[in-house]
Structure to design on (223 residues):
């Protein structure tokens, strides 16, 4: 009987030690802990008014118009700007809608409201990975429809997770150097595109920007 017990123990021991080790790739934390994340945004270009679309005609008549061809896509996930140009006296009060994708490739929209005769930039609040369309509603311009439109890069760089509070952005760096004044952060606890960081360092297409933050593990903020 004793030999049987010893043999059984050896068999189970060998099985236990020969079982493969399962690697865990998920972010792990205890329920009472917070988890700091680091996000590196590689070489974002300087914000410019016409990076995505330059001098688009917009409405050529009182009918609605949609642009789906662009000069370039965002270099990194970031906010956008729209600026009326050309004969801005023809700009009518309207709201232009941009459709595209967020950091994780999900469809999003952002709206840009303009007053009549507007001639200054309107900055968006959502971070776009790609732009799919820019929709000009009917009567967005008055005859003879001489306004044109630029779509460019904004200052807000998209975060990869959602935050509950702007205070949960802990610190930021540019080219590895600590920013004495941390990035200004906008947050949306449930929608990834509303979480952005406006760094104090100058974006020039050559420097890496990093931000360290506490995310909220919202299900909607993961791919």
């Amino acid at each position: 009987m004793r030999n049987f017990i010893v043999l059984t123990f050896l068999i189970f021991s060998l099985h236990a030690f020969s079982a493969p080790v399962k690697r865990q790739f998920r972010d792990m934390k205890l329920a009472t802990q917070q988890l700091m994340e680091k996000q590196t945004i590689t070489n974002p270009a300087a914000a410019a008014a016409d990076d995505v679309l330059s001098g688009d005609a917009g409405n050529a008549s009182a009918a609605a118009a949609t642009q789906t061809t662009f000069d370039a896509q965002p270099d990194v996930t970031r906010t956008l700007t729209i600026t009326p140009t050309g004969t801005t006296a023809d700009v009518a009060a309207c709201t232009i809608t941009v459709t595209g994708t967020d950091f994780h490739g999900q469809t999003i929209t952002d709206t840009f409201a303009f007053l009549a005769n507007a001639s200054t930039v309107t900055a968006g609040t959502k971070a776009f990975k790609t732009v799919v369309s820019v929709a000009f509603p009917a009567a967005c311009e008055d005859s003879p429809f001489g306004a044109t439109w630029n779509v460019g890069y904004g200052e807000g760089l998209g975060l990869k997770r959602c935050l509950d509070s702007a205070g949960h952005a802990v610190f930021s760096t540019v080219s590895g150097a600590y920013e004495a004044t941390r990035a200004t952060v906008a947050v949306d606890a449930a929608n990834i595109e509303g979480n952005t960081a406006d760094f104090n360092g100058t974006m020039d297409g050559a420097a890496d920007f990093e931000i360290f933050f506490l995310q909220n593990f919202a299900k909607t903020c993961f791919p």
Observations:
- The first strand starts at residue 36 and ends at 41.
- The chain has a mean pLDDT of 91.
- The helical segments are 2-18.
- Residues 2-18 form the longest helix (17 residues).
